[in-house]
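Reposting from the mailing list since nobody answered there.

I have sequence plus structure tokens for a pair of proteins and want to know whether others read the tokens the same way I do. The first protein:
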Amino acid sequence: MADPARAQRLAKRISSIVASAIGSEIKDPRLAHVTVTDSKVTGDLHEATIFYTVMGESLDDEPDYAGAAAALAKATGVLRSKVGAGTGVRFTPTLTFVLDTVPDAARHMDELLARAHANDELVARQAEGAKPAGESDPYKSADESTDDSDGVQ
């Protein structure tokens, strides 16, 4: 088992090597909008998981997730060779690419929070001129007499 700090350093180095190779050396057009977000290396330094996101051509276009996954699968051997040459470790880790869902989850959470704030504003506007259904102060206070109809105090 390797040192966890060494595994983290290797993961960081692998992500920078892969991102650089995708950006400048791999000429597949399906990888034009792929961004490496994170990487993790197992404790024995034999397997690396690389997380990536895919952006669309513009803000309105849907990203091509399947095309990016196919291009990364095709380029895995070349990328592994680049990682082996760039890291200098005895055993070059196998690379596994996983679509990173954190940005989509964060965007979804932002949408839910915006909807909750809008509902809060609507409730506040409705409560602005509202009157209580019963008395304005439904709780008994100490200065009121406790006069029950049973005669018990």
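The second protein, same order (residues first, tokens after):
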Amino acid sequence: MSYAPTPSQTVGPFYGYALPFPRGGEVAPAGDPETITLHGYVYDGAGNPVPDALIETWQPAPDGSRTGAPGSLRHDPVTGEVIGRDGLAFTGFGRVPTDADGHWTVRTLPPGGVSYIAVAVFARGLLHHLYTRAYLVDEPGDAFLGSLDPARRTTLIARPEASRTYRFDIRLQGEGETVFLEFQ
């Protein structure tokens, strides 16, 4: 007897129930004066906003350390429910869903030792999540940026807006598609 292969499962949007957690975009300790805001929209191939994507960010601390503090996903000891961050420790990790307009926001600290924040995108229709980088400055000496065609390079540079705020839109395909990384 032979069996037909099982169809592939996409990475979303089923994660909306369990993966987002309270204050998942509040990576910087509450009230830290060095806090920056990184935000943007996720767009599909037709240029429409994706209202059910999930964005994760990873980065080193401002001093360049990469260990982070434990505690991003704290649980209530009685109920076991996720209660989110403690608001004091910098973990270097953020996780936020897009809203109905495809918008996402993370408040964090400037990364130390690198000029970018690593980003992963989970969205409907994707068989695997996608990795990219949000560069806060166009780093002339960065080997990876230097290897890209100038038009593609611009898809990785977050645009400065108001004080300490950067916009980084993610286009999943089509015109202006964001450069995505492949890890083996």
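Reply #1 (J.P.):
I read it the same way you do. The two ends are 35 Å apart (CA to CA).
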